[in-house]
Amino acid sequence: MILLSGGSGKRLWPLSNVNRPKQFLSILRHDERPESMLQRVWRQLDEANLADEAYFSTSGAQAELIRGQIGGDAVVIEEPAQRDTFPAISLATAYLHNVAGASRDEIVGIMPVDGYAGDEFFEHLRRLPAVLEQSGSDIALMGAAPTEPSDKYGYIVPSSSPALDQPFYRVSSFVEKPDLIRSEALIREGALWNCGVFAFRLGFLLDILEQKGLPADYESLSTNYADLPKTSFDIAVVEQTRKLSVLPYHGEWRDLGTWDSLVREMSSELSGPGYISEASHESHIINELEIPVSIWNVPDIIVVAGPDGVLVTDRQSSTGIKDMVAEIEIGPRFEERFWGKQTVLSHQQAASGLQTVTKRVVISAGRFISYHEHHFRKEVWTIVSGMGSVCINGVTQTVSPGEVIVVEPGAKHFIGAIEGDLEFIESQIGHIVSETDISRYEFPDPMDTHAL
């Protein structure tokens, strides 16, 4: 199983951005604990015994987030650049064949990580290989039975009803996000929502790559990744394939791509500090800030507050905010990393050109920021809470709340959390303050203070 993780989810601004796409937002809940879309899909795959042979396909920026939420053992096939689903699936297919040793006859499933489905969806997923075998198709897809007309999804149009002993349809055509009138007509024709879930044999796609004059081995494909056409797998392959079948699924499935669709799956109208009056029926607040946000006697609205901005929208209009975001979006101020999270509090520049960037940093228990140095900036850390281990130029010390650590330019250093989460305020000071000003170094077990 290849799990696709990509995109930035701008329809879920201001919480979703290029540093934290929508699938990483911990807004859903499971057993009273926060859960992201990614964590939900992974948990459901694990409960269906499908996680052991799952691989993630994503760009390098998201690989760290996946390992942070799923665990360091997650197998991630990293794209050299983000170039849509055809290059991503092609690279993952070559990896499975050349690196993981899968044969050309191996059946591989493809699934995005940002869908929302019931547990029965994953049991249904097990039937795709049998459909591929039984139908003699090159690609077998899963299609969800629509619950209502929608212009948010693509539709799979079947050619005929399945025979009594066959659970699948032959595919006639695809319709990409039709208007509501056309959606109603398609549903009457028996069309299904396109879930973006399908299966094929590795050799099928490897042959297509060779036919297109593209490398089919992993090393060459990775090296020449920028030469691959930046297009979707649907356009490049699925819509060009004549032998297609689709397995209908009649259970719960949705794409949580807008705030209106997402709040429907939230267990409470209020997430974070705030208040919603009784007259504000069908209103929701999602607040990541530490100050309260309230709705007083205004129904059917969604208020979302985070470090990158504040959104107030009518529920039904929340589908159209992507264009607005393009006009107002600033550089992301909040970022999740494998080791924890950080929020930019301020960025100031003096007349002399000296810059000061102040961040709030939280390192998760047992994790650390790798051993590295900066050439142009000084860092000042003020410990707020937790216990940490700090190493500067090979000298290690334990830090606690109230202590201040100064890291001069050119000093090799790391910091980690040894008792609970470690929170500190970091001030970066220099005429050049840049994320590219970093050199990383190997270090034996940074959290083992006895090895230092």
Note down, in words, how this protein is organized.
This protein is an alpha+beta fold and 452 residues long. It has three domains: 2-259, Spore Coat Polysaccharide Biosynthesis Protein SpsA, Chain A, CATH 3.90.550.10; 266-326, no CATH class; 339-451, Jelly Rolls (Sandwich), CATH 2.60.120.10. Helix content is 20%, strand content 35%. The protein has helices at 37-47, 60-70, 85-98, 119-125, 128-135, 180-188, 202-211, 218-223, 233-236, 259-263, 322-328, and strands at 2-4, 28-30, 33-35, 55-59, 76-79, 107-112, 115-117, 139-144, 155-158, 169-175, 192-201, 244-249, 253-255, 270-271, 274-276, 284-287, 293-295, 301-306, 309-314, 334-337, 340-349, 355-363, 368-373, 378-392, 395-399, 404-407, 413-430, 439-440. The strands form six sheets. Strands 20, 21, 22, 23, 24, 25, 26, 27 and 28 form a nine-stranded antiparallel β-sheet that branches. It is globular and about 70 Å long. The two termini are 41 Å apart. It holds the Pfam family NTP_transferase. Residues 337-442 form the Mannose-6-phosphate isomerase type II C-terminal domain. One of its GO terms (molecular function) is mannose-1-phosphate guanylyltransferase (GTP) activity. Its EC number is 2.7.7.13. This is Mannose-1-phosphate guanylyltransferase.
